Amino acid sequence: MRVFLQEWKKIWRPGILVALLVLGLAYFYLFSNFYIEYFCNGPTAQAEFDLASEWVETYGPTMEPEERQALDQQLEEEKATFAQEIADYGPAAALGITTYDAFASYQQAYYTAVQEQDGEADMETEQFLHKMMDNTNYYRITELENYLSAYDGKADTPWSQQEGFLSYTGEEQAQIQRLEDGGRGFLPDAVQFSTINYAKHLAIWSVLSVVLLLSPTFVRDRLYHTRAVQWSSRTGRRVWKVQLAAGLCGAVVLTLCNVVLYAIPFVGKGPLRFWDCPLFHWCRDDYTWFDGTYGQYLLVLVGMVLLLGVAAGGMTMFLSQYSGQYVAMLLKAIPLFLVVGVLAGGFLLNRPYYFRTIYLGDQAVPVPPGGEAILLGSLVLLSVVLLFWACRRQNRREL
Fold it and tell me: In this structure, how many other beta carbons lie within 10 angstroms of the beta carbon of residue 229?
């Protein structure tokens, strides 16, 4: 244990920690912070988030058919609120706009006229419309109407009965049918979008931080000729295995720290209120290969980031063993980060386990079910095989 703690101290040097902290803050504010600052980007997304939050609290994670009628009552109440909010607004009264339906008709007539006039807009009318939209509950009403329209449309004509359903493979059709038969939740688009992109940047940073932390592990020993002293006895050779264990534990701890630090601002935006909501949504034709909840999906993403960090850590230590200088290790660390972090991490965390395709030239190739798990498992297995091979090779070296 004392050897392990000593190797642990060699990995977690103050200089490296300071460098990781500075780079981590820079990376976060350059890339990841966008999905926190613009978590619900725009009044439409904010209205959808607010409505979905209220529905989860009132109806639970899914909307049952017997609860559907309550939304009609809510829509009437929202329209009544709209009428009260514009009652004392002079320009609206002058145009005879006293209800939401009257405003919607006026708005549609104006947009139709603009299209007929080759897109020539009237700035005074545009200003009036946007002032009405931004200072009333207009966006809540439109989002509620969109949800009801999609809900009723799917109830009357399920996706499995539509023409586009035939474009899917038999396996995809079976999964779509299972999702259609299950409950439809209230997970907003903004939450889904921010979650996936935020997790992707977390994965890339986790790989980069692990590579930077572990790159000097064996290079330092070779520079100070520590390895020759260790190799002078068979007992000393065991230190190398302890170093591997300390390095892998360091990769796990650093990745977990990254996950926790990234989770703090994200959780503050309130997405966990949709923890029990299904990923499948009435208003989207966006299907996953498993019928899970948003909370389960978050756990899957965390697990993927953790395994990716472990794989990167194992490969980094393997390359570090064969580097006699820091510059040589840096030349190996950069392509390692680009392949494992940017390419593999960017692909793995880009809507994982959703129906999606990758493009090989001009040809679109569908990602098979569980393709992300296969690739991630392959990276972890490659890391283990490389370290196991290195251990056998070191044990066979002559004293």
Answer: 12
Contacts of 183 (CB under 8 A, 6+ apart): 61, 62, 63, 64, 278
DSSP character string of 112-144: HHHHHTTT---HHHHHHHHHHHHTSSHHHHHHH
* Phi and psi torsions of 355, nearest 5°: -65, 120
What is the model's pLDDT at position 260?
96
pLDDT digits (tens, 9 = 90+) for 354-380: 888 887 777 777 888 888 999 999 999
Task: Say how far apart CA 9 and CA 40 lie, in whole Å.
Answer: 42
Q: Which residue has the tokens 């009723």?
A: 152
Q: What type of residue is 214? A: L
> What is the rounded distance in angstroms from the CA atom of residue 154 to the CA atom of residue 160?
10
- Given a cut of 80, whether residue 233 has pLDDT beyond it is no
Cβ neighbour number for residue 275 with a 10 Å cutoff: 14
The pair of structure tokens assigned to 307 is 């395994």
**Helix (H) / strand (E) containing 366:** strand 363-366
- As a whole number of Å, the end-to-end CA separation of the chain is 25
Q: What is the pLDDT of residue 398?
A: 57
3-state SS, residue 232 = coil
Judge whether residue 74 has pLDDT over 80: yes
Residue 186: pLDDT over 60: yes
Q: For residues 255-269, give the mean pLDDT.
A: 96
Which H or E run contains 202?
A: helix 189-214
Judge contact between 282 and 150, C-beta under 8 A.
Answer: yes
Residues 173 and 160: beta-carbon distance below 8 Å: yes
∠ CA 265-269-273, rounded to 5°: 125
Radius of gyration of the chain from Cα atoms? 28
Cα–Cα distances in angstroms (integers) from residue 223 to residues 228, 321, 327, in the given order: 11, 11, 12
